[in-house]
Amino acid sequence: xxxxxxxxxxxxxxxxxxxxxxxxxxxxxxxxxxxxxxxxxxxxxxxxxxxxxxxxxxxxxxxxxxxxxxxxxxxxxxxxxxxxxxxxxxxxx
Length: 93
Hints:
This protein is of the alpha+beta class. The protein has helices spanning 51-55, 57-71; strands at 27-32, 38-43.
């Protein structure tokens, strides 16, 4: 199903408010096309401590494969691993 068109009008200073369209988006990359159109490509930021995953292709592929396996039911229940944690009180089961 196609998304219905929405028209936005600039205010007196040329600004356009995206409102709920921009929900969960932290910024936009702007592309100016030769025909005069403007494309806003949504961007989201990730915490710096998680950036390593996107910089490590092998690790990222392993995570993607694990998510695909989980989604298709290719997983085995291995029980609780709480005995390997440092603070067992913080583990929710």
